[in-house]
Amino acid sequence: MKANPVLGDGGYLIELERRGYVESGSRREKVGTGRGSGQFTPEVAIEQPEALRQLHSEFLLAGAKVLQALTFFGTREKLNRAGYGAQTESINAAAVKIAREVAGDNALVAGSVSRTQLTEREGMSSLDKSRDHIAEQIRLLKDAGVDFLILETFFHLAEMKVALECAAASGLPAVATMSFRPLIKACTDGHTPAECAKVMADCGAIAVGANCEQGPNLMLKLLREMRAASPVPIAAQPAAFKTTDEVQCFTRLPQFPDSLETIQLSREEFIQFGKSARAEGIGYIGGCCGCNAAYIRSISDGLAG
Ligand SMILES: [Zn+2]
To answer: Which of 25, 54, 170, 239 gives 289 a disulfide partner, CB atoms 3.0 to 4.6 angstroms apart?
Structure first.
């Protein structure tokens, strides 16, 4: 018998950016499309804690059973580049505290850990530096009392393996999701979704899957490949943006980051995703960029239907 999928949350940074609390880095730093995605860091946890508390409450009301602390891009490496390196401890601690206060006894709290961006900037020789930064952040999250980790938005399987090794050393369970771009056929260091799933499960992930970059329908194709290769449950956190056949990821489209409204997906695709999730063998579903509480409620409605 297949268990009901666990409903998560997601879409914190882009939603908070739209509300005016997070900087996109547009026109500030040249990566990705060249128009910048250099910031999207979580200092809102210490600078505008009420805005973060409010968004957590909305996801909880929508039915989320897991609240992700807003610690995405919270390694000292990434925060340094955004000008917040000295606040690494306080940002991670504050984010977990706020999520925990909202979650109460009604939801688990996950620490979100993502890539350092060192691999795409400096190459594979930077993996040891990545390891130090990711290990440090996981220590901070464990000290702050998260229930488990969500390792997400890794482009290189090699850096994900490093993160999973750090998670294993910490003793915290970890969900692991890769992001695929520009196409869903392979991650940035050339591994297919099936290979990624197998390696992440072998490295101890309690669930494996994909997040960000694609909407539910396109992501489902790569999740099926992962499912066929994975001994552990599948996790999915799709984005709410339309992509094209040539560019199957929204962060490489010219609409990123300043015209995302023009490629927003409707909630209907998320209702359908919720409806088919159990049959598709998905164990954990949340949202990613472009999602807000309305999208999480749509998944919840789909799961209930
Ligand atoms: Zn995302």
So the answer is: 239
Give residue 34 CA to ligand 1 midpoint distance, Å.
18
| Residue 182 preceded by cis peptide, ω within 30 | yes
Contact indicator for 214, 184 with CB cutoff of 8 Å: yes
User: Is the pLDDT assigned to residue 31 strictly greater than 80?
Assistant: no
pTM beyond 0.85: the answer is: yes
Contacts of 281 by beta carbon, 8 Å cutoff, 6+ apart:
2, 227, 233, 234
CA of 11 to the centre of ligand 1 (A): 6
DSSP state of 87: G
Task: Map residue 153 onto helix, strand or coil.
Answer: strand
With 60 as the cut, is the pLDDT of residue 33 above it?
A: no
Determine the pLDDT at residue 39. Answer: 84
pLDDT tens-digit series, residues 193-241: 999 999 999 999 999 999 999 999 999 999 999 999 999 999 999 999 9
Q: Are strands 207-211 and 6-7 parallel, antiparallel or unpaired?
A: unpaired
Q: What spacing in Å lies between the alpha carbon of 1 and ligand 1's midpoint?
A: 31
Q: Which residues, by Cβ under 5 Å, contact ligand 1, an ion?
A: 212, 288-289
How many A from CA of 290 to the centre of ligand 1? 7
